[in-house]
Every structure is written in C-alpha cells, then in structure tokens.
Amino acid sequence: LDLTTAYGMYLAVADHRVQHWHLDYGELGHGQRLAAGTAFQTPRFALILDRRGEVGTTIRRWTDLLVAQGAIPDPRAKVRHPWHTAPLYCTWIDQCARGAVTPPAELQDQEAALAPAIRVLDQGMVREALALIRRERLPFGTILLDDGWQVARGDWRAHPQRFPDLRALVDEIHAAGLKAMVWWAWPEIAKHAVVDPAFLIGGGRLNRHGARMFDFSHPQVQERYLRPLFHRLFSSDPGCYDLDGVKTDFMADKVHADMPPFDPAWRGEENFFARFYALFHAEMRRHKPDACHLGCAGHPWLAAVSEANRTFDVSSSNVAEQEARGLMLEATSPGCPVSLDFHNFCEHFAEVLALARRRGWAIEIGNLMMMKRDHFAPWQPADTAYLEVIRRAITPDQARASTRAS
C-alpha cells in the first residue's frame, strides 16, 4: 500500500507457491542510509486473494483500497478537459513510412533502428499533414510531433534545420483550431547529446544500460534545467513554443540501485517516477492550466498526473491485444481515460476504431499520408477509401470534443 524508497520488489512464483519475495534497497555502497539509532519501517503490503475474479476486477480491488486509504487521490476529483480525449494525429507511423522503417516488435538500439524515421520529420511534413486534415475535413483535435522534432534525446530544443521556427508552426496549428503536442522521453539522453554534467545523477554515472540520467531530485536541476525547459515548451512568451502538452515514453528500468539521486527521498524507481511526474505536471500546468500529459504507464500513483494513458506500441494488428491493454490500464490507473495507440496497418483497422467506440476510449492515428495493408505489404500513399474509414469512425461525441477544443 505504500510507494516505498526501495528500488524494486522481486517476486517469483511457481506451482502456486511463492519461491521468493523481497525488496531491493541497493547493494553495498548504494543501500539506503539510516542514521544511527533510527527505526526503519517496511512498507505496508496488501495480499488480495481472488480465485474467481477476472484479473482487472481483482486489480481494481487494490486501486479502490489505495483510494480508500488515502494513498492516491480520488480519481473522481480530477478535472479533465474534453480536448484531452479528442481524436489525435501522431506523426510517427507516417515518419516510419517515409523513412522506410517497419518498427521491430522489440526495440534494442532504438536510435540506430529508428534513425531514418527520426530524420524525415520536419515542419514541411507537419504542414502537409495539417493541410490534409483540413482538406479532408477530418475532425482531429490534436497534432502530435513525435521523435525527431528535437535536437537529440536529452536536448529538448527544436531541431534548428528541421524546425527552424517551431513557434510559427504551432501558431498555424492553433489557427486551424487544433492543439499541438510533442513527444518527450524524459529519461532518455542520447550518447551524443551535450548535457551539463551538473544536471546528471552522479555527475554522469551510467546506469545498467550505459545511459546517463537527469537528477530531477536536485533543487538546482529543477531550477536551472526543468523550469527553463518548461517555460520554453509551454509559455506563449516570445521565443517560446506555446505547446499544449507532451507524450511521455520509454520510462521503465532506468533508475537502478547504482543511480542514487541527490535527494534520498527520491530513492526507488517508482518513487522517483511518481515524484517527478507530480513535479513536471505542476510546472506544465503553471503555463497551460489545461495542458495534457499523454502517458503510457498503468500505475495508480501516476493516474492523477496523466490526462490519458495510451496502450503503447502494439506492433501487431491484434485487436484483442489492444483491448486487453486498455482494460489493464483502466484497472491500474483508475479514472484515467484510455487512448488506443496508433494501429500500424490497414488490417483490422476498422475493428480497432469500432473497439474505441464500443469502450468509449480515445483514439490515436499515426498515419494519414501513407498506409500499409499488413506487416508484409509495402507502404503506399493513403487513398480516399482509407481516409473515409477514419472519417466515418470518429463518433459525433468525439467530433464535438474536437470542436470544443478549438
């Protein structure tokens, strides 16, 4: 029931028996430091046994318990704005098409595998998509610029060649009645990114994946890095981008036991995430009171600081997988709307759109300019029949949400 300062809980079960169940507080040299004479209290656990229940129903018993115990805010108390769940166009699959990339089911060296898709994103491509949305009268509420708008992962400035005037582009999107968001993988720092070592955990210590991480627990990093970054992203002041929200990505398995933050109160990966989400969400809302954080984590402590949760990179055309992920998000992030992540192929596309209508979930579409029949088919320009499927699938309620957003 408590979000602990441990680095992780490890549970192994076989043949209906618990083999081991322990908390990892870090190995020698990185353990949790305790002052002499102090008492240490382990977190509270809740063991819920349910032989007959469906897994989502069982998990809801846990999240309801968290609300009842005051561990997480009551999700009914959060104000949610209609535009957060209006139909959204994300540039990513069109980027993959233009870069001749079919994303692998499991990403290893992400930057190497996806580099062609990252390089093709520029303001001309975004303007082309915006013109298509207006010409075809597709009632999208938001355009989201995915990976490639920035200088590098970790250097979150608009790319000077591909987006020489991001603010002018955002102004055009706003003038068309849409919101503008960007992709932001905050735990990621590219190896070639130039970052002040004073902003990093341990001055640049590498985690188990050989990557650096920002130490957002440090007050100076918050003041000198995070606040100026969010002012540039969300403020309407001259020289700022006037964006409306961010899509977070690639969070898991980053803050390991040998990556101790400056503030010991931030120890533990989930604990670090929960504290950072609350921090950046408040900073984002300081500039834009209705700003949107589109997350990808089913986690009850993050539900209050996420405007929607996407089903996250379903690489196949399996509609059942999309639905299963959405139901799990509903269970693990109470009150947070589900957003079906983009469906890469035309195969079963109408079924995914029907699923969104049936469940009342939001929908993201990642390709308007290009289409691909299935995993093995070549990319080809989107035709009128494909666009008509999208147009007809957007329900009257979604269209009204898009209109209200504009």
Gist of the model:
This protein is of the alpha/beta class and 406 residues long. The chain is built from eleven helices and 14 strands.
Kindly list the characteristics that best describe this protein.
33% helix, globular, alpha/beta, disordered C terminus, two-stranded antiparallel ribbon, eight-stranded parallel β-barrel, single chain, 15% strand, 406 residues
Fraction of residues in β-strands? 5-15%
The helix/strand class is alpha/beta
Tally of extended strands? Answer: 14
Kindly, what is the distance between the CA atoms of the first and last residues, rounded to a whole number of angstroms?
41 Å
Summarize the SSE layout with pairings:
Elements (H helix, E strand, L loop, with lengths): L7 E7 L2 E8 L30 H14 L19 E3 L1 H7 L11 H10 L3 H13 L6 E4 L4 E3 L2 E4 L7 H10 L3 E6 L34 H16 L10 E4 L20 H19 L4 E4 L12 E3 L8 H14 L5 E3 L8 H11 L2 E4 L4 E3 L6 E3 L2 H10 L2 H10 L1
Parallel strand pairs: 3-4, 3-12, 4-7, 7-8, 8-9, 9-10, 10-11, 11-12
Antiparallel strand pairs: 1-2, 5-6, 13-14
Helix pairs in contact: 1-8, 2-3, 6-7
